[in-house]
Structures are given as structure tokens and as C-alpha cells.
Design goal:
It contains three helices and eleven strands; from the N terminus they run H-E-E-E-E-E-E-E-E-H-E-H-E-E. It has about 150 residues and is mainly beta.
Length: about 150
């Protein structure tokens, strides 16, 4: 069966996908609303990030229990960032949910400083490829929707 753009949403709904609205910000990133441990926040959708990240400064807001990590991460810049890890978190993105999910925590100061310089609101974290893979993600770039399934 060939699926046209007009019925992609219906087709994916019949395949048990959840439809999540994406919002474009000035940096041309997509953002979405997500709940971590039942706390709502704004997150960047980053298909190039291997893991999902949360701003370390928000650990109390999101009720995270932290463990030290030997994981070093890199963004687009040259600097390595040390991370902390929080295991066993719940994530809800528009009806799609996952329990016992690990999150890496880093300082988002540099990221949010860039957003501030282009008059964009700060973000709480990044939804990365780990969640996208787990949810068998499909992104409709034209209509600005993310679809996740179990």
C-alpha cells in the first residue's frame, strides 16, 4: 500500500503511533513538550545526539537521582563534557511513555546562552536518538510532527 502525505497521520495512527507536535525555533531546531518524572519541560529534538540529555541545573525540578559517570560527551564544539547519569526515569512525550529510562546530565549554560543571543527561550534538555530508536521514530519535517510507537 502506498501512503500519501495526506493520510500519513491516519496510516501511522492505525499502526499504533503517537503524533507529537514539533515547533520550530529561530535556530531552526525543532522543540517539543515532554514530561520527565511527570514534570513538563521544553526539549530540543536532536537526531544527531546519541543520548537524551537534561540540564544539570534542573536535577531537583525533575526529581532525579544522580550517579557519577565516566562517560565523556562531545557536542559540535571541540570540548569534552563530563556527564552525570540518572537511571530509572519516566518519560512521556504526547501519549508515548517509557519507564526506567536513563538520562545523561550536562551543564546547558552554553547551549542556552546561544539561544538567548538569538532571542529564543531556554530549553530543559535534548531528546536524542536513544528515545527515537526506542520509539521507532518517524519525523514528518514538512508538517512538523514526530511519531513514536512501542
Amino acid at each position: 500500500m502506498k501512503t500519501t502525505r495526506n493520510n500519513l497521520s491516519d496510516f501511522l495512527k492505525n499502526k499504533s503511533y503517537f503524533k507529537i507536535k514539533l515547533h520550530t525555533i529561530r535556530s531552526n531546531h525543532f522543540t517539543l513538550i515532554s514530561k520527565i518524572n511527570k514534570v513538563k519541560g521544553v526539549f530540543i529534538l536532536d537526531t544527531g545526539a546519541s543520548s537524551s540529555f537534561l540540564d544539570l541545573k534542573l536535577k531537583d525540578k525533575y526529581k532525579l537521582k544522580l550517579e557519577t559517570s565516566k562517560i565523556e560527551t562531545r557536542g559540535a564544539g571541540p570540548n569534552k563534557l563530563m556527564t552525570l547519569v540518572s537511571k530509572n526515569n519516566s518519560i512521556n512525550i504526547g501519549g508515548w511513555a517509557c519507564k526506567r529510562f536513563p538520562l545523561a546530565l550536562i551543564d546547558f549554560s552554553n547551549i542556552n546562552d546561544v539561544f538567548e543571543s538569538i532571542e529564543t527561550s531556554p530549553v530543559d534538555g535534548i531528546i536524542g536518538a536513544d528515545i527515537l530508536k526506542k520509539g521507532s521514530a518517524i519525523i514528518d519535517y514538512e508538517k512538523k510532527y514526530l511519531y513514536l510507537s512501542y
